[in-house]
């Protein structure tokens, strides 16, 4: 019993072995009792039986003993057959191996010779009780960290023999060790389970809770026994959209769920779950995190965000209101300046007017910067996407500064690398704005020396600054399939005053300039570079600068834009050309008297008939006896604003009046959202200060594709025998304003010959669309100055241009040129008078 052994897979079980031994003993006893009752021959003692009977008897005994021996020897348990005096009559191989002796050597020995002394008394006591009570006994013995399950079973015996007992000992140390290990593992699991910072719970596929850790129990306020009475669905707070909390057998399941606590409060959990096997059945192991605090923080952040957005809205409203107050008088200043510039002025008056125009332009630039900044911060800013020529844009940008650099005697140049695509798609106006800001600063801060612009194709990020290189996109040749974009690098270098390193870190901040003293000396609000950086980033790029005091500065930026084609650029330019229109009827609704007069004068310059109203109610009254082709509607007016007036116009019973195009006028820095003015029925929007070019573009865009009532009246009433020049018509068109009449005549003298030259070139090139366009445009000019014959000839050319033979068109063009030559003489005489 001192050797620990592993059980053989083929060895019979202990209970089975003991039952088999007892069965064999019963069979032997039955044989012995049956022998005397047999025939006389069979009843004789063995030494007197015949050979066959004795042999049969002995054979059965031998077979029984062999069976018993095989059974007990096949077991790894320790077996011994002892009598009531503890004498061993037989033992199995396991016992003999344990004491290192042959089983025969143990027969006749006392059982207690092989029982360790420290447990000998316990075994003796159990054996005596079994003998006395003639009942089986089971007990355990522990020695040297080994534990044995011991049993004593009494066997049946004849009257003339000693009682026999089986003594067996089964080593249960591995089992106890395994149980101990399992207990330790369960304790470890329970410790980890309950010590986890997150809530952990396990439920079966029906939702019944199987286990829950301490955190989960404390969060809910229930004991484990109480939790096991619920299903997960029982604890879920009522919701219209319950989450999927069972999932499938393979995927990790994540969901948020709100459980009801014992005190009635809601416990929000962010849960991750996975299928497991628990107690031999499928279950879900769920790990939940209490997100009560997170939701509280999110709520605080959301309120802070709302407050910040509210502050931004208030700021934008403030900028809008200030802009409105600034733009209203500025609109008048610019309008008066433009009108005065068209009149005859002496040199001193021209210089003073130029100073006014320059100051107004600077003020308008500052307002526009504030407008851009406000739009960028409010996320209402959008970039255009149209084809353009980069070379043409660079030429235009360069031409803007030619007079300035000439006055400062600076060397000014730009270079565009040959591998840079000429045609791109993007927002040319905003790119020009960026270049204008950066180049303008370079010229402003450079007293002598040079300013140079360089444009290259950024084939790799080494051409960019280190900060830019980290964020720069790959070039087209390294880009993903389908990406036709290119990365263009711009560099603007000057030899100006330069900047200190501390200034480089903040020049892209709002309202910041390099050196404060320089800012006062050179002027500016410090918004240009901040706006430029935001615009560049909207073009998928970034900007950086390097500088040294007294040695100039270098600004580098890159943008990424898609390629375009020459055809797309040509179509864009053709679509963007100004279209002259025939005189139209215009209703101007504007509450500011000066603005009303100035805008009226601008509109009347092109021969349009203008009626005015100071608010929406006056506009509705004017429509009772005036049918306009277009209405310019100020948005902010007393009594009845532009929105309400538009709604009432759209509700008029007269379908012609109800469908009149309406252009919104606004002096706000923030352009009203398009859906806001479109929802009320307006067709377009213009921001103040209103310029003559924008007025013309708006009228052309609305009326160029449809014949106006006035235009139709003129076409129907005009006859081929009209006067060559009727100055009364011109005076009517100009509102009998002699200054405007003179201006209209001067414009005709300066542009009429150009119209004819362009018309003859279009005929020579067989370009029907161009012939039609020029004829349509000149028809408007001729009608404005009262040249009815020329207008009729231009109308004929316009109508016949799509289909007439080129010979016939050439005759009409020649006839029109003769009329124009005669008109120029007559108009010149009218101007002299």
TrEMBL record:
Gene3D superfamilies, per the entry: 1.10.287.130, 3.40.50.2300, Histidine kinase-like ATPase, C-terminal domain, HPT domain, PAS domain
Keywords tagged on the record: ATP-binding, Cell membrane, Kinase, Membrane, Nucleotide-binding, Phosphoprotein, Transferase, Transmembrane, Transmembrane helix, Two-component regulatory system
Enzyme nomenclature, EC number: 2.7.13.3
Catalytic activity entry: ATP + protein L-histidine = ADP + protein N-phospho-L-histidine
PROSITE patterns (UniProt xref): HIS_KIN (PS50109), HPT (PS50894), PAC (PS50113), PAS (PS50112), RESPONSE_REGULATORY (PS50110)
Segments for region (Disordered): 35-54
Any one GO cellular component localisation term in the record: plasma membrane
Phosphohistidine modifications at: 776
Tagged with keyword Phosphoprotein: yes
All residue ranges annotated as the PAS domain in the record: 64-134, 185-227
Response regulatory domain segment(s): 585-703
Domain PAC residues, every copy: 253-303
Pfam families per record: HATPase_c, HisKA, Hpt, PAS_4, PAS_8, Response_reg
PANTHER family: HYBRID SIGNAL TRANSDUCTION HISTIDINE KINASE J (PTHR45339:SF1)
Protein name: histidine kinase
Organism: Oceanidesulfovibrio marinus
């Amino acid at each position: 019993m001192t050797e620990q052994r592993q059980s053989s897979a083929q060895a019979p079980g202990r209970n089975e072995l003991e039952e088999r031994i007892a069965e064999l003993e019963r069979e032997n006893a039955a044989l012995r009792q049956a022998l005397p009752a047999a025939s006389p021959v069979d009843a004789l003692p063995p030494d007197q039986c015949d050979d066959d009977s004795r042999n049969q008897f002995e054979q059965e005994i031998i077979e029984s003993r062999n069976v018993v021996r095989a059974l007990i020897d096949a077991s790894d348990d320790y077996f011994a057959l002892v009598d009531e005096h503890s004498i061993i009559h037989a033992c199995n191989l396991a016992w003999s191996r344990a004491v290192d002796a042959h089983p025969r050597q143990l027969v006749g020995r006392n059982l207690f010779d092989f029982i360790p002394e420290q447990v000998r008394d316990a075994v003796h006591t159990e054996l005596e009780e079994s003998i006395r009570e003639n009942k089986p006994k089971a007990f355990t013995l522990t020695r040297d960290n080994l534990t044995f399950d011991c049993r004593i079973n009494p066997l049946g015996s004849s009257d003339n023999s000693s009682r026999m007992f089986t003594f067996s000992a089964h080593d249960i140390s591995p089992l106890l060790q395994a149980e101990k290990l399992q207990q330790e593992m369960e304790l470890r699991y329970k410790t980890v389970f309950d010590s986890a910072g997150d809530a952990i719970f396990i439920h079966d596929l029906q939702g019944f809770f199987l286990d829950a850790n301490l955190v989960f129990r404390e969060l809910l306020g229930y004991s484990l026994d109480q939790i096991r009475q619920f299903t997960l669905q029982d604890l879920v707070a009522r919701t219209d959209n319950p989450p999927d909390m069972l999932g499938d057998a393979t995927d990790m399941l994540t969901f948020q769920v709100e459980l009801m606590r014992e005190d009635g409060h809601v416990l929000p959990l962010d849960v991750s779950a996975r299928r497991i096997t628990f107690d031999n059945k499928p279950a879900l192991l769920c790990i939940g995190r209490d997100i009560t605090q997170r939701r509280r923080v999110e709520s605080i952040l959301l309120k802070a965000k709302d407050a910040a957005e509210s502050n931004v809205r208030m700021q934008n409203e403030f900028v809008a209101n200030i802009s409105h107050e600034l733009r209203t008088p500025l609109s008048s200043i610019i309008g008066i300046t433009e009108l005065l510039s068209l009149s005859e002025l002496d040199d001193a008056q021209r210089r003073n007017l130029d100073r006014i125009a320059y100051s107004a332009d600077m003020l308008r630039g500052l307002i526009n910067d504030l407008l851009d900044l406000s739009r960028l911060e409010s996320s209402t800013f959008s970039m255009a996407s149209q084809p353009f020529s980069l070379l043409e844009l660079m030429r235009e940008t360069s031409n803007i500064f030619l007079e300035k650099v000439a006055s400062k005697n600076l060397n000014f140049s730009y270079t565009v690398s040959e591998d840079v695509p000429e045609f791109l798609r993007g927002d040319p106006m905003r790119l020009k704005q960026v270049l204008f800001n950066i180049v303008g600063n370079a010229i402003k801060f450079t007293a002598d020396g040079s300013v140079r612009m360089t444009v290259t194709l950024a084939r790799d990020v080494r051409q960019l600054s280190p900060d830019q290189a980290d964020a720069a996109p790959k070039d087209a040749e390294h880009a993903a399939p389908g990406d036709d974009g290119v990365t263009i690098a711009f560099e603007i270098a000057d030899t100006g005053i330069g900047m200190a390193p501390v200034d480089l870190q903040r020049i892209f901040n709002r309202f910041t300039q390099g050196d404060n003293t320089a800012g006062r000396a050179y002027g500016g609000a410090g918004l240009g570079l901040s706006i430029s950086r935001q615009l560049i980033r909207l073009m998928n790029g970034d900007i950086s600068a390097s500088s040294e005091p007294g040695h100039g500065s270098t600004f580098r930026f890159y943008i990424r834009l898609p390629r375009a084609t020459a055809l797309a650029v040509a179509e864009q330019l053709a679509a963007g050309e100004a279209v002259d229109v025939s005189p139209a009827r215009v209703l101007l609704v504007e509450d500011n008297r000066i603005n009303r007069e100035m805008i009226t004068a601008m509109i009347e310059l092109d021969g349009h008939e203008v009626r005015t109203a100071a608010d929406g109610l006056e506009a509705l009254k004017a429509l009772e006896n005036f049918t306009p082709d277009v209405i310019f509607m100020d948005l902010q007016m007393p009594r009845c604003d532009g929105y309400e007036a538009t709604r009432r116009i759209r509700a008029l019973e007269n379908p012609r009046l109800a469908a009149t195009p309406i252009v919104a006028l606004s002096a706000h820095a923030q352009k009203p959202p398009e859906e806001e003015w479109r929802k009320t029925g307006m067709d377009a929007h213009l921001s103040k200060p209103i310029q003559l070019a924008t007025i013309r573009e708006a009228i052309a865009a609305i009326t160029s594709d449809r014949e106006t009532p006035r235009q139709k009246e003129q076409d129907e009433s005009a006859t081929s025998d009209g006067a060559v020049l009727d100055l009364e018509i011109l005076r009517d068109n100009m509102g009998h304003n002699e200054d405007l009449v003179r201006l209209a005549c001067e414009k005709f003298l300066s542009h009429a010959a150009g119209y004819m030259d362009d018309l003859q070139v279009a005929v020579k090139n067989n370009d029907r669309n161009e012939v039609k366009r020029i004829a349509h445009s000149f028809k408007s000019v001729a009608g404005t100055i009262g040249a009815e014959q020329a207008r009729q000839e231009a109308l004929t050319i316009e109508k016949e241009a799509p289909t007439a033979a080129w010979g016939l068109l050439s005759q009409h063009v020649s006839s029109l040129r003769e009329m124009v030559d005669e008109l120029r003489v007559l108009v010149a005489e009218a101007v002299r008078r």
